[in-house]
Structure formats: structure tokens, C-alpha cells
What we know:
Domain MoaB/Mog (chains A, B): 6-174
Oligomer: homodimer
Pfam family, one (chains A, B): CinA
Distance between the termini of chain A: 65 Å
Family (chains A, B): Belongs to the CinA family.
Structural class of chain A: alpha/beta
Protein name (chains A, B): CinA-like protein
Amino acid sequence: MAPSAEILCIGTELLLGQIVNTNAQFLAGELAKLGIPHHFQTVVGDNPGRIRRALALAVERAGIILTTGGLGPTDDDLTHQTLAEHFEVPLVRHPAVLALIEERFRERNRSMSPTNAKQADLPEGAQILPNPMGTAPGIIWEPKAGVAILTFPGVPAEMRAMWAETAVPFLCSRGWGQEIFYSRTLRHWGISESTLAERVGAFLQSVNPTVAPYAGNGEVKLRITARAADIAAAESLIAPIEASLRAIAGLDCYGADEETLASVSAALLVRTGTTLAVAESCTGGMLAEALTALPGASRYLRGAVVAYANDLKTSLLGVDEQRMIDHGAVSEPVARAMAEGVRKRLASDWGLALTGVSGPGGGTAQKPVGLVYIALAGPAETRAVEIRLGAQRGRDWIRRVSTQSALDLLRREIINREAFGIMKER
Amino acid sequence: MAPSAEILCIGTELLLGQIVNTNAQFLAGELAKLGIPHHFQTVVGDNPGRIRRALALAVERAGIILTTGGLGPTDDDLTHQTLAEHFEVPLVRHPAVLALIEERFRERNRSMSPTNAKQADLPEGAQILPNPMGTAPGIIWEPKAGVAILTFPGVPAEMRAMWAETAVPFLCSRGWGQEIFYSRTLRHWGISESTLAERVGAFLQSVNPTVAPYAGNGEVKLRITARAADIAAAESLIAPIEASLRAIAGLDCYGADEETLASVSAALLVRTGTTLAVAESCTGGMLAEALTALPGASRYLRGAVVAYANDLKTSLLGVDEQRMIDHGAVSEPVARAMAEGVRKRLASDWGLALTGVSGPGGGTAQKPVGLVYIALAGPAETRAVEIRLGAQRGRDWIRRVSTQSALDLLRREIINREAFGIMKER
Lengths: 426, 426
């Protein structure tokens, strides 16, 4: 079995929740790219006993140990000292490192305090892992057979520079990076995680590439991860699985990786040379905001009307007052009228409208919180859908899922019309 | 020695570096608030053997174990199953939980798949830790003396709600939270971090409470943190410091803690009984979205017009075409006309408008990316400001800071008018 890597992050500020551990995320992603197995991450405070305990455990579990933090000049910076004690070697002062530290202080016209010299004391036998951005160097140390320890400061920019410039070449020289992990994430809307997982069940057992489902904010993702010699080889492993998964999911799969329902819908509008106008009520501008977050939105978005007050649904969108009295502002007929009204008044090919109860107040037995009507007025006809999101996930969630559902309705309609070759038939 | 807590985060996506571990940061901060010692955090993938290994270690090292992740319906969600195996008890299906899961699916007109039932299977003897936002509940389980295990889903919003509603009361009932850390964060707009830090310099040396500045997304925060027996005692330590800091910052301090420029502006509109209408261009709905994110927005927001295409600035807002030709769509005169037009056409007391270049394209020497004009039409007069945000921070940042600056203009204007006692003089 190939040795695995373990990440050991040292710093009391992590245990106090004062900072989020982006170093662990960065190193984890980099290990995956190099194809280095990685099974455990540990966070420990600036405490010699507990650092040694975590270190002993890491040495027992892994062959490559990456530490972050504890390289500074103060008394609670203990990483190199604790490593030396654990492997029972002395600390050795490196004049070259000391000179470099003194130089850094001269550059900034600052006088160096004696404690800074401490940063030049490294475990006997360790190589220097140079820090191009700061005063504290790390080490690359193989204290015994099958164990390589690389230490980094906690400052993310310094850690990343040291990783790229020295750690990666070292690991590749040790035979890593021959294989990489490479992922594609397929994104789905309008299907539950469990239903999708059942449909693609056979693929979830696949070994290379692996396929794993994730859910959140109303969408479901399938992550396809391949292990291969390089990205091209990984993509050729992923391609057939991706094709099969897309075939199974059909239109429920809206895109991959960085694509969003907004970016996919925008691309469809651009490709079909059609324009959109938006009428919002419960989402209060969220749909327009999502569409204008993309550069070049003026190519496809005419504009939007947020008719929050009901009388504006009439004065700005031309919704018939009687219709609102008969059906209520949150109703399919009003959603249809809003979509048709905004399409006409803003002179666009498509009119997309939402009206609903986003809560927490305003719900009734007939019109509960989470009830939303979405309508899309197009060149030929107007489609409408009713969605019921429930109240328990809250106002923000209802508004977000409603916005995504509206974009999904537009996406499916354009794709279906393209399929039927009836775009621009107005 | 009091037992300590340990955080065990379960999820392969953490080991692949696909997400940053904000759950660990949140829980670590909450443990600190409750005064619960916390010495180790471990991250492990969706692997039964390694989850059990990490679990055994946590049980040996700590008395309170908090896990996140692995509560979903799919085969790689293993937390409760692995816990049951480790403590050699069976999983028991909870009909009440099953009914709740079925209910959630009914609410959303989704059919529940058999695998979802798995989320109702909990280790024998464990209490349910209710999940108010999702289908997967956690557990509170004391499988043996001196060991309490609390499990949470990986979805941050669900985890946080479960923590606040159930976990905190449980831990307090066990005697924790006797001495607490309690913070108030003062929020500022329109002043730089260095300027504010200089003005409040003397307070940054304070010990209990401590005062620390933070900056981000155009705002500057001062966090006041007190250590005390309870919240009341902490607040009495914080109150005089807060009063002094607010006095120094004046109108640049817009609120505290969860308050936002949107919530503060909304409260001012409600208190003065005035209504707002919004006209947006470069922000594309972001301002309206921020104002409608708050419950009860219909009390003060009439609606919004996103006039993204220039001809809509004329047809929907009545901006004089010649004025756009003379000054350009991104200009103070057009911003003023948009504010006055939306105030008139949407029949509101205030009209707030933005027009600018959010980039990345569309900038010129005279009208560079990041140039934004904001205008506020009120009962008496129309005010306008020009802001130059530069291009390098990108489109999203320009849109966000523009939106906040518009809210800040409204906030200051209402406060000044209140001070002069000339509200409602139309």
C-alpha cells in the first residue's frame, strides 16, 4: 500500500474558531491533484504535549506529514522544537537562515529582536524549506525510513508559495504526481438526491472513476472522480461515465462544474438570440440579480419589475385588478398575467414571473408559506408551474429555490423549443 | 479536570479540498463561548473503518464529541451506523422521525424513496436532536458514563439551527456555560479600518472586554468581547465601551451584530412611516433583493424597476432621452432622473437609484469600471453621490459595495431629516 499523507494544523486560533482552516482545504486539494492518498486531518492548539500526541499519531498513520503553523518567533510557536523532541535530536542554528532573517528586517528598516533568531533553529538533519514571502522557513525532514515531514507557516500566502516552489518538486522527486485525481461535478435540478441515487445506483459502485452524490440548496450533484496519469487520461475515463449519467438524468442535469442555472439559461438566451424580461414579487429582485451577476447580461436581459405592492402589479405590469380579486395575488392566473405583462411592456421575447408566499408571515391554509407560482410567457404560449416548498427551511431558502426553479423553467422551455425547431416563430 | 470537547468532521469532500470546513470553525467558536475546553479537531472521509478509528480516539481523548456530516440518505452516509457498531448497539427505526421525513416530502409534492427511511434509524438509546430545517435529524447520546455524543448534518444552516435550538440548552443543562465569552460587533460604513483604528486606538489595549477591528467587503467592524459569568454581566462590561465607541464613530457606525445596512434602513423607513421605490441598473436587482430579504418588506418597499436596457430608463422611469444623450446613462443627471422617476411612478416617499459601470467590460477613460452614481429623491429634494470603486476587485464586489452605499445614503438622509424634524413635510 502506498503511504498516505496527513495534515496537522497547529494553532490555538483554530480551536477558538477565530479563523477558518483554509490551509487544510488548500493542502487537501493539492494532495488530491498529486494523487497522494489522504485520510486524516488534525487540528491542535499551541500546546507541546498535544502537538506531540497528534504528531505521534500522524507518524503511525501516514508516511507524509504536512504541518501548518507554529513557526513564528513567539513562545507559543513550538512546531520545530516539538518535532526535534519527538525524534530526540537537537535543534541546530542555521547561520544562512539567520542572515536571511536579519536581511528581511534591514529591508524594512526594523530592528530584529533576539526571539526572531529562534526561527533559524531547525531539527538536526532537516533540510530548509525556503519561505520566499516571510521570515520563518519550514523544513523538509525524513527523520526515519518511510516518514517525510514538511512544515509550513500558518500564513496562507507564505504556505502556498512554499508549497508550489519547493514542496511539490520534492514530492514529485519522490515519485508522486505520476497519478492525479481529477473530478467533474454534474449538477441537477428538479430531482431528489435519493431518486437520482437510485437511478444511477449501478454507477455508485464504480471504482475508477468513482461517482458520489451530494445535495444542498435544492440541487443535487454527482461528482465523478478519476485517478489517472494526467488530466487528458482522467477525462477519457470520465467521459463515458458522464455521458451515461447525463443520459439517465436527461433534462434534470442542467450543467457541470462551475455552471449555474443562471449561466446555463443565459447561454441559451444568447444562443437563440432571444431576450428576457422578469417580473418578481416574493423573490424581490433575486432573479434579476442572479441574471445580471454574469458579465454581458445586457445581451439577453432587458430588465425587471419588482411589483412588491399589489397595486404595482396592475400599474406596472397591467395585471387585471379583477383577476387579483378573484384569484389572489399569489395564484397561477396572476403569475401568467405578470409574465405576459412584463414581456409586452419591456418588449422582450420571454417574460418570466414569480409570485408566492415567502413567509414567515402571510400564509393561509389555502396559500401556505412556501407556495410559489412561476410563469413563463414566450413567443407561442405561456406556461405556469406551482411549487410547494414548505415553511420550515425559511424565507431565504424559499426565495433561493423559487429563483432557481424559475431559471429551470426557462432553461427547459428554450431547450424543448429548440428541439422542436420553433424558436423565433413570432 | 473538566472533560473537553472534540470535533469530528466526516466527509470525503473535506479530504479532497472541495469545501472549506466552516462547520469546525463555527462549533469551535461556540464551544469557546460556552467555556468548554476544546483540544482536537479531526477530519475523516466517508470510510467506516477510519470513522471508527477517529471515533475511538475521540472517545478516549474527550467527554463531549461533536460530529458533522454523514447523516444523509445515501450509502456513504455512515455516521449513526458507525456509532451504533462502535458501541455495539442496534439501530432502531423511529416512527416519529419517519413520519416527519414523509411529511417533508408530502409538503413538497415529492415522492419519498425507501433509502430516505434510513435517516430514521438511530442508535438504540440515543435521543433525537431535531433538525428544524432538513430531513436528517441528529442525535444526543450518552452511550457510557462521561461520554456525550452529538451528531449534526454537514449542511451548515441545518447544523447551526440544531446547535442553537437543542445542543446549547443540553450542554448548559450539563453545567457548561457558567463562564462565557460574549461579543458585540459594531458595524461601520464610510470609514477606513486604519482611520477608525486610530480614532479608537486607546480601546484596542483594553483587556476585558477586548476590542478588535476587522475589515471586509467595504465595511469595518469593531468586536467587543467580554468574559463573564453570564450574558447580563458581559453586557454590563460591554455597554460603557460600546457607548464610547459609538460616540467616537458617530454616523459612521450604522449598527451592531446581526444588523445590516438594509435592516437598519428598513427600520428607519418603518419608524418614519415612509415608503421606498428603487431604480437599478448596474446592480441589476441586488438593492431590491437586499431590502426584500427581510420579513415584512411590504411595509416599506413599494417595488423596484431594473432598467438594464437604456431605452427602459426612458419608457419605465421617464428619464429624458436627451439627458441620456448629453450626459450618458452613467451620469449624475441620469441617476437623479431615475430616482425622481421611480419615486413618482411607483408613488413612494423615497426614490433610490443607481447607475454605474460594474465591468469587466464597458469602461472608458471618462467612465471607468467601478464608477457609480447613486441618487436619492425625497420629499424635499434629490441628493446624489459619485463613488469610484476601481476595477481590480471585480464585478461582484462593485455591485455589492454600490448596493451598500445606496442603503447608507438612504440611512443618513432619513436620520438627518429626523434630526431636523422635517419628515413627512410633503
